[in-house]
Amino acid sequence: MPELPEVETIMQGLVPVLKGKTITHIAINRPDLRKPFPPGLKETLEKHSVIQLRRRAKYILIDFSSGHSLLIHLGMSGRIFIDHPPLPPSLRKHEHFSLTTQDGLKIALIDPRRFGLVTFFATEKEKTFPLLAHLGLEPLEPEALKTEILAAKINHKRSPIKSILLDQRIIAGLGNIYVCEALFRASIHPERSASSLKETEIEALCNVIPVILREALAAGGSSLRDYVKTDGQKGGFQTLHQVYGKEGEQCPSCPGLPSCEGIKRLLQSGRSSFYCPYHQKLF
Fold it and tell me: How many domains is the chain partitioned into structurally?
């Protein structure tokens, strides 16, 4: 699933082709994705201009002059393509939704597995909109990820720190890839209970999470299976992963140490966690 860096990369790729443009046509090519397309979406947004594009957690938000915002979640396999005129004579396979601008550009959502989501809401009611109301800290916002703030959110929780960091109510936008990478850089075992973390360890997380996300953004995100940028090119951060998907490989933090057995994988709540038992001790 695209995580914060991938969603931010796609959003930034849409800004030059959508901001300030009037949407002349909206196509809904099937009744639903993960959930049905909401009634009134086409009628409410069509013929209005795009004021700005934003990201919140793993959602792309497109604000319209109608006073409404379009919300797009890419799900597991969603991709967004930009088609320049002349437009293709037929739809791409799995093209379920598209916007066409005044200058003939088409922004198409392709989602083979249909785990994505497209909906809209009144922009002024964003803070109470169910999908957005309970989201946590934005880790790339200045001063958002402070040690004392994160500590207050996790110190009383006995769940594994890996699960806590994946909870969108705590930190918004993190997923399996970047949580594994952050825990490795902070030298924290993914099965440690959140309440067991020392202040210095929480501080380490607050330091490494934004760094990793910015590195991933600079590389265009991580392309493992489905994700590509709006120009169709793959991201490059997957080549810089230190532990994610590296089971059996040498740990980059302790090369050559006879006591280090390399990167291991364990399942937590159905998801793979990659870590070095020597570098990230459980006790």
Answer: 2
Non-local CB neighbours of 135 within 8 Å, separated by 6+ positions: 56, 57, 168, 169, 172
* Residue 94 counted as an annotated binding residue: yes
**pLDDT tens readout for residues 87-138:** 887 888 999 999 999 999 999 999 999 999 999 999 999 999 999 999 999 9
Q: 117 and 12 in one domain?
A: yes
Q: Are 118 and 213 in the same domain?
A: no
Residue 170: CB partners within 8 Å, gap ≥ 6?
136, 137, 150, 153, 154, 164
Please tell me the number of Cα atoms within 13 Å of 132 on its side-chain side. 23
Cα-based distances in Å from 86 to 24, 83, 89: 16, 8, 9
**Residue 150 φ/ψ, nearest 5 degrees:** -65, -40
**Both tokens of residue 72?**
């797009």
- Tell me whether residue 225 is annotated as binding: no
pLDDT higher than threshold 80 for residue 239: yes
* Range(s) of the domain holding residue 166: 147-275
User: Hey, which residues are catalytic here?
Assistant: 2-3, 58, 271
Query: Residue 92: which CATH number?
Result: 3.20.190.10
Query: Are residues 254 and 198 located together in one domain of the fold?
Result: yes
Asked if residue 265 belongs to a known ligand binding site, the reply is no
Identify the H or E element spanning 202. helix 199-218
**171 and 113 share a domain?**
no
